[in-house]
Amino acid sequence: MNRILVLVILLAGLSTLAAGQKVHVEYDRTADFSQFRTYAWAAQSQFPPDTALGLFDARFKKAVDARMKQSGFTLADDPKAASLELAYFVMVDPMSSTQSVNPNDPTAKTKFEQTWVTSELEGTLDFTMRDVKADKRVWLARSVTRVEPKKQEKNIQKILDKFFKNFPPGR
Fold it and tell me: Cis ω on the peptide bond leading into residue 49 (within 30° of 0)?
């Protein structure tokens, strides 16, 4: 019975990891997305290209530009002429979790109680689109996920798959 319970918990944990990012998308249902044809990136802080933030900035914008092009949008030569303004915001929080092994547990292979702390980083990515003419946000996508620097490019693609799944609305 205990082994079945351990197996069920283990499978539930694996499915949670496989699910990956938590993504939430909302948009202004009154906005007519067919009127938007061009976009520009909002003027944000520029990161040195050889830093972690600079690399992320370049990768993220390149990946979004490709998605926008696939969706029929054009990057405006003049940001003032764009119908949409795109921006993103990133926040990273350290997270810790504690795990322990009880020596009285029949599956434990130790005579002593063991406890260890695991540290991870959790990142939140907000991606917005603003109607320049109306000066209001028309699209917000948010992702919360564990930060894994070695898998950054792959994770960006997975997140954007979810962000752009039903974009633009009504098409």
Answer: no
Q: List, for residues 115-129, the tens digit of each pLDDT value.
A: 777 777 888 999 999
pTM for this one?
0.73
Burial class for 33, CB neighbours closer than 10 Å (0-12, 13-18, 19+)? buried
Q: List phi, psi (to 5°) of 99.
A: -130, 150
Whole-Å CA distances, 98 to 43, 54, 65, 105, 119? 41, 33, 40, 17, 9
Percent of the chain with pLDDT over 70: 82
- Contact yes or no for 121/94 (Cβ under 8 A): yes
Residues 6+ apart with CB under 8 A from 170: 33, 34
Q: Find out whether 133 and 24 touch, Cβ atoms under 8 Å.
A: no
- β-pair type (84-101, 38-41): parallel
Angle at 87 between CA 153 and CA 91, to 5 degrees: 60
| pLDDT tens per residue, range 49-81 | 888 888 889 999 999 999 999 999 999 999 999
Torsion, Cα of 124, 55, 27, 91 (10° steps) = 20
